[in-house]
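#onboarding

Welcome to the new folks! Below is a worked example of what a typical request in this channel looks like: someone posts a single protein sequence, and someone else replies with the predicted structure as tokens. Don't worry about understanding the tokens yet, we'll cover that in week two.

Example request:
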Amino acid sequence: MYSVKPFFQIMDELCKEKNIIQNEISYGWITQLKKNNVSKYIIGYQFDLNSAIAYNIAGDKFATYEVLKSNNIPTIEHRMIFNPQTRSRYYKNKFLNEAKDLFRRNKNKLVIKANDSCKGKDVHFCSEEKEIENIVQKLFEENNDTLSACPYVDISYEYRAIYLCGEILYIYKKKKPYIIGNGRNTVKELIDFKFNKNMNVDICRDLDLDKVPFNGQEVTISWKHNLSSGAEPIVIDETDEFISQVREVAIKAGDALNIKFASVDVVVTENKEILVMEVNGSVCMNKFSEIIPNGYEIAKAIYSKAIDKMFE
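Example response:
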């Protein structure tokens, strides 16, 4: 295990290899890279490649949906919900009603999330209409300005494609968190064994925690695909059934947003639909680096190309 996050160790190594002077400024929030009297910057995991417009669109889930839709790129439908405390009070009922209509049209399954959420935070599943207003109110009380509502989609796999200037550098897919039964322990005990009690795993509501799965039985325990919440990355190659389609739609999504460096999340549904879920202007590969075989080297190669692009 790395004593510091893999990203920072990778940056140190790359800067030494490329003869780049690296300085932390603004109390470490900004990393300044200097080479041949040219300065470039990294904020968090955002590289000095994307325009402010592209980054802001990617950081807004509804805006991303609207841009992709306008470019005829298959994507998961979204609806906006405005906070009446910061926007017009007339917006509240109008958009809540749209979210409820989407809920009914999607067999009473809806996902509500902060419009700028990441890593699965502030993302909630609704299976009862009365939950919608409660979740919306809760998220507004947490100072969220806008929310997105989208239909819950039965996802077989979620793919992540790393996009750089019109090319896809790498694709992997993510599997929902799961446990394997041993015929002795309950689902709850197996979850604790695998993830430890401190990990934030959003457990499926209809999961029977007292059930004892038979030996070798695989039990999906969450509906989310976030690596930070226990999902597992899977290495794939060109033999993967959907990789060509995922690559094609991810390139179209990156091009449509005029973004330069991003990760594009593409889902394959149970009905084998290929849909863009979101685009991330900050490319974080820490968990990937720690879990995937050779993940550190793969992430380093990707970040190396991004740095080279910055100084072109």
